[in-house]
Amino acid sequence: MPIMVMDRGLHIDAGEVRKAFPQETVRDARDAAEALGVCADCEVLVAMAHDVTDELVGAMPRLKYICAMSAGTDRLDTLKNLKADVRITSGRGIHGPQMSELAFLGMIALSREFPRMQQNQRARRWERWPQKLLFGKTVLLVGIGPIAEELALRCEAFGLRVLGVSDARKEAPHFAALYPRSRLKEAAALADFMIVLVPLSDKTRHMIDAEVLAAMKPTGIIVNLARGPVIDEQALIKALQEKRIGGAALDVFETEPPVEDNPLWDMPNVIITPRIGGMSDVYAQQVLPLVVHNLRCFLDGRPSEMKNILRG
Length: 312
Known about the structure:
Elements: E1 3-6, H1 14-20, E2 26-29, H2 32-35, E3 44-47, H3 54-58, E4 65-68, E5 87-89, H4 96-111, H5 114-122, E6 138-142, H6 146-157, E7 161-165, E8 177-179, H7 184-188, E9 193-196, H8 210-215, E10 221-224, H9 233-241, E11 247-250, E12 270-272, H10 283-299, E13 309-311
Parallel strand pairs: 1-2, 1-3, 3-4, 4-5, 6-7, 6-9, 7-8, 9-10, 10-11, 11-12
Antiparallel strand pairs: 5-13
């Protein structure tokens, strides 16, 4: 069964897939444009979901299975040429370490005003001020899945009180309390830090709106590692401009990259990262065992044993 491994050299080594399945034909391409020339007979596509194009799936008439290496697969829902019977699995469950570390980068940098320190360094200015600690503060994780579970463990180790928002669960390890989404504003009012982790859907689009932001403490910091449209960006900009919240660390945006005149670029209490939350220097080692497991189950005719089945 021909397998197409499409990656830009950042997430997986096609050679490792060949080693795991020497009896199969494994083709590789750096991107969708390159894959178009060699994908016609492939029945399996291994790729990051956001790199899969409508043109590519349309050029794969025998496609039976997409093994997405990313946790978020909402891009696949927009593809008109993707047949309904194509099985899809995700890379859910491997991103806890890198997402957690980026969350801490945002929390610590904004709490300690690290951008101000960098400006002072460039200006050779020696300025000291009391340093705000994470210890003893409250963090609210909006969306409780594998990433939140790993992040909660790390937050607890830093001495943070961990709260969560989820309609799917009533308790989870390392959380002091969980709230349903209907009590999001109540939970937001308790948080020194609010970290957004929910996937994007019709129900979560602009879930963090003006009312939720208004419920936060004036010193509260929001970290978005989910999808840009989960937060009402215009409401966030207004809250930051009016200093009704303390700051924001944003890895995702409604438009990516943000347009040049987006006010977020120039705000001193905002840290912008270019959608790097899921990336790591060991991604290949993280994702390869999951990819190999799911491919083996699929090729052996054991689809029920595959992990992270989204469809099919």
